[in-house]
Write a structure and sequence with these properties.
single chain; alpha+beta; Transferase(Phosphotransferase), domain 1; six-stranded antiparallel beta sheet; three-stranded antiparallel beta sheet; about 15% strand; globular; disordered C terminus; transferase; Protein_kinase_ATP_BS; Cyclin-dependent kinase; cyclin-dependent protein serine/threonine kinase activity
Length: about 450
């Protein structure tokens, strides 16, 4: 922590306190989350699900965990700094977002989700407060409730904020999947258009009532599994009048309404995946190459929204310039910039780089998946009032990231225990242990560790 200067406390949550800080050597502003819980081993730190998942991700639309520091049994998570979250952005808007602005934001989030799902994780707590924004760039954050797609159920019953919680979770299903993220995105997309929540329930029962009022009550044809879930908990769906989404979200394109309806389908199987959503006609003016179509040797992440290339010559409108050619600063830390570590300090630097290098693989060319249209449309209605919710600063959301040591990831080798005075960094895809104390012989001590 000697390399950082704390500037201001910007959040105090259940699990940690977040500071805006500056790197003394580079001048870069970061967000540092100081965990309230004590961590007595390095293994306990690096095996947190939040840390393990973010170590595997290096994408322009996923917030970057830059460094993990354990010092005197205190855990610090160093994140890239973002200006605000999506809720704050919506709250200060004086006029509605345009179709192009919503398309920009949602396209980027779907890219981040597609990447995350491809890497084997789903978020489980998507909401405007967990989408961080700087200028025209938006990133998925707060991986405290992230789950491995390959993990075995049952899953936790309570996940995500109520307004964005998928109906299968509301009905206490333990078999939900990454499609809960897609439901949340349908609700978020509608909120971007109207600046009001689509399903502002005050309780689980009221939440289901609000959903029925928008998309209609489920039937044996639209969601047979849901009816069984309701019978299992002795719940009966309300029969309420509905209104048309195109009335609730006026002056929007048919493609936008169609995408929201498909994302907010009762049946998870009828919701498009993130990769399929990117191919929806609503995003036809966006340039995107699905992983299955990338040529051999291409290992870069998908471009951010607004990168259109030659499409512009066909008369397609460009998005704001801030979105063009957005890149990650992936080589920020350097061994030359790291002073010898004080006793009791352990670090893991450039984690995303390390795992991104090791996991580069040639992708076979296959036929792209086609977008699956939604099921039968239903009339809809909405409660226009918005229940008050606290304004969270960007870093405060980081402070509320739920981390628990009992969560375990699958299929990843644990790094070896580290001793005080050893610097753990990465070079050429390998992890190296470097002694911070001089060796009497004058020879450099370097030990390569598998993984």
């Amino acid at each position: 922590m000697e390399r950082y200067k704390l500037i201001k406390e910007i959040g105090d949550g259940t699990f940690g306190i977040v500071w805006r800080a500056i790197n003394k050597q580079s001048g870069e502003v970061v967000a540092i989350k100081k965990m309230k819980k004590k961590y007595y081993s390095w293994e306990e730190c690096v095996n947190l699900r939040e840390v393990k998942s973010l170590r595997k991700m290096n994408h322009s639309n996923v917030v970057k965990l830059k460094e993990v520091i354990r010092e005197s049994d205190i855990l610090y998570l160093v994140f890239e700094y973002m200006e605000c979250n999506l809720y704050q952005l919506m709250k200060k808007r004086e006029k509605l977002f345009s179709d192009d602005e919503v398309r920009n934001l949602c396209f980027q989030v779907f890219q981040g989700l597609a990447y995350m799902h491809q890497r084997g994780y789903f978020h489980r707590d998507l909401k405007p407060e967990n989408l961080l924004v700087t200028k025209d760039i938006i990133k998925v954050s707060d991986f405290g409730l992230v789950r491995e797609i390959s993990s075995q159920p049952p899953y936790t019953e309570y996940v995500s904020t109520r307004w964005y919680r998928a109906p299968e979770v509301l009905l206490q299903s333990s078999l939900y999947s990454s499609k809960v993220d897609m439901w949340a995105m349908g609700a978020i997309m509608a909120e971007l258009f109207t600046l009001r929540p689509l399903f502002p329930g005050t309780s689980e029962a009221d939440e289901i009532y609000k959903i029925c009022g928008v998309i209609g009550s489920p039937t044996a044809e639209s969601w047979a599994d849901g009816l069984k879930l309701s019978r299992d908990i002795n719940y009966q769906f309300p029969q309420v009048a509905t209104a048309d989404l195109s009335v609730l979200i006026p002056s929007r394109s048919d493609d936008a309404i169609n995408l929201i309806k498909s994302l907010c389908s009762w049946d998870p199987c009828k919701r498009p995946s993130a990769a399929e959503a990117l191919q929806h006609p609503f995003f036809k003016s966006c340039f995107y190459i699905p992983p299955s179509l990338r040529t051999k040797g291409v290992t870069r992440t998908p471009p951010s929204a607004g990168i259109r290339g030659s499409v512009d010559r066909q008369g397609v409108k460009r998005y704001s310039g801030g979105l063009l050619n957005s890149k990650l600063t992936t080589n920020f830390s350097s061994n030359k910039l790291h002073p010898a570590l004080a006793p009791g300090v352990q670090r893991k630097l450039d984690m995303a780089n390390e795992d991104g290098t090791k996991n580069k693989k040639t992708v076979k060319t296959t036929q792209p998946s086609k977008y699956r249209p939604p099921g039968k449309d239903s009339p809809t209605s909405i409660n226009k009032g918005r229940t008050a919710r606290g304004v969270s600063e960007t870093a405060n959301k980081l402070a509320n990231m739920s981390i628990a040591t009992r969560r375990q990831s699958l299929g990843q080798t644990r790094p070896p225990p580290m001793k005080a005075g050893v610097n753990w960094t990465s070079e050429s895809g390998n992890i190296l242990l470097r002694s911070s104390h001089p060796i009497p012989t004058g020879r450099t001590f370097t030990k390569k560790v598998a993984g």
